[in-house]
Design brief:
Blueprint (H helix, E strand, L loop, with lengths): L1 H50 L8 E5 L4 H16 L5 E8 L3 E2 L2 H11 L4 E4 L2 H8 L7 H18 L4 E3 L4 H15 L8 E3 L6 E3 L7 H9 L7 E2 L8 H15 L3 H9 L19
Helix pairs in contact: 1-7, 2-7, 6-8, 6-9
This protein binds iron/sulfur cluster.
Length: 283
C-alpha cells in the first residue's frame, strides 16, 4: 500500500513539474508571438504617422473605439506611441454606441486595466433612427456610418480635439478604393490623414500601412474577444465581394494590395479622363 502511495505521489509531482514546464513554454511562445506582431505593427504605424505627419506636439486625439479588433489595436498602438514618441499628446477613446453591441462593458474594463484609458460612451440613438428612416430596399449601413461619424465629428469640434483616429488598415483602404470605383464610378479611397469635407476635423488612420492579417495576429495576442453586433440588418455584401476578388487576384499577384496602395499615392493625373483638363494649355 505504502509503495503504491509513494508511486502515486511521485507521479503527481512529476506531472506538476511537466505542467509548469509546458505553461512556462506556452507563456514564452505567447510572449514571443506578441513581440513579433507588436514590433511589426508599431514599426508600420510609426512610419505611417511620420510619413503623413499625423501627430503633433500638444494634439488631443479622439480615438474611435467600436470594440472590433481594429479599433482595439488602434488604441493599443496609440498607447504605445504615446509612451515612446518624442512629442506629447493626449488620447481619449470614444465609443459611439449603435445600440446593437453585445457586452461592450468588458472592453472598457480591458482598456482601463491594460492601457489605463477610460472609454467614453455616447449613445447615438442610431438604432431608433434606423427603424424610422431606413428604406427597406436599400442597405442602411452607409447612413449608419454617416450618423456615427457625425456624432464623432461634433464631439471633436465641441470639445476641441485636434484629430479623430480611426482603425482602418491597408486592406480597408484598398477595398474602399475598388468599392467606389466599381459601384459609384468614382476614384477615391480613404486617406491616411485628411481634413473632413467642411475642413473642421482632421481624420487620421495610423494603421494605414498595416495589413489585416497583421492587425488580426496582434489582436489575438491580447486574449480578448472583439465585441459582436446583434444588428438585424445584413450588409449588402459588396465589400465581401470585393474582398473575394482581391483574394483571387492575390493568388496571381501576391503584392497586389501593396501595389494598389502605392498607386493611390502615385497618380498620373494627366492620363485620367478629366473633362475639365481637356484642351487646357500646358502652362
Ligand atoms: S450592420 Fe447595422 S450596425 Fe452595422 S453598419 Fe449596418 S446598420 Fe449599422
Amino acid at each position: 500500500m505504502g509503495i503504491i502511495r509513494l508511486k502515486h505521489d511521485i507521479f503527481c509531482i512529476l506531472s506538476h513539474i511537466a505542467n509548469l514546464i509546458i505553461c512556462d513554454k506556452e507563456e514564452h511562445v505567447n510572449h514571443n508571438t506578441r513581440k513579433y506582431f507588436e514590433k511589426r505593427v508599431l514599426r508600420k504605424a510609426g512610419t505611417a504617422v511620420h510619413d503623413y505627419r499625423m501627430i503633433e506636439n500638444g494634439d488631443r486625439i479622439l480615438a474611435a473605439v467600436s470594440g472590433g479588433k481594429d479599433s482595439i489595436v488602434l488604441l493599443k498602438v496609440l498607447a504605445e506611441l504615446k509612451g515612446a514618441a518624442p512629442v506629447s499628446f493626449e488620447v481619449v477613446p470614444v465609443h459611439v454606441s449603435t445600440g446593437f453591441e453585445k457586452d461592450f462593458e468588458r472592453i472598457t474594463v480591458w482598456v482601463k486595466e491594460e492601457l489605463g484609458f477610460e472609454v467614453r460612451i455616447f449613445d447615438s440613438g442610431i438604432k431608433e433612427i434606423l427603424e424610422h428612416v431606413s428604406d427597406p430596399e436599400k442597405s442602411p449601413c452607409a447612413l449608419c456610418s454617416r450618423l456615427r461619424r457625425g456624432v464623432l465629428y461634433s464631439l471633436a469640434k465641441r470639445e476641441g480635439f485636434t484629430s479623430i483616429a480611426l482603425g482602418h488598415h491597408l486592406d480597408d483602404i484598398i477595398e474602399t478604393f475598388f468599392l467606389r470605383c466599381f459601384y459609384t464610378g468614382q476614384i477615391g479611397a480613404m486617406a491616411p490623414s485628411r481634413y473632413s469635407n467642411d475642413g473642421r476635423n482632421r481624420v487620421i488612420r495610423p494603421l494605414a500601412y498595416c495589413r489585416n492579417e497583421l492587425v488580426e495576429g496582434y489582436f489575438r495576442t491580447f486574449g480578448i474577444e472583439p465585441v459582436t453586433s446583434i444588428c438585424p440588418i445584413r450588409p449588402d455584401g459588396k465589400r465581401e465581394r470585393v474582398r473575394d476578388y482581391l483574394k483571387l487576384l492575390e493568388k496571381e499577384i501576391p503584392t497586389v494590395k501593396e501595389s494598389v496602395f502605392s498607386a493611390l499615392g502615385n497618380i498620373d493625373v494627366k492620363s485620367l479622363c478629366l473633362k475639365e483638363a481637356a484642351g487646357a494649355h500646358p502652362h
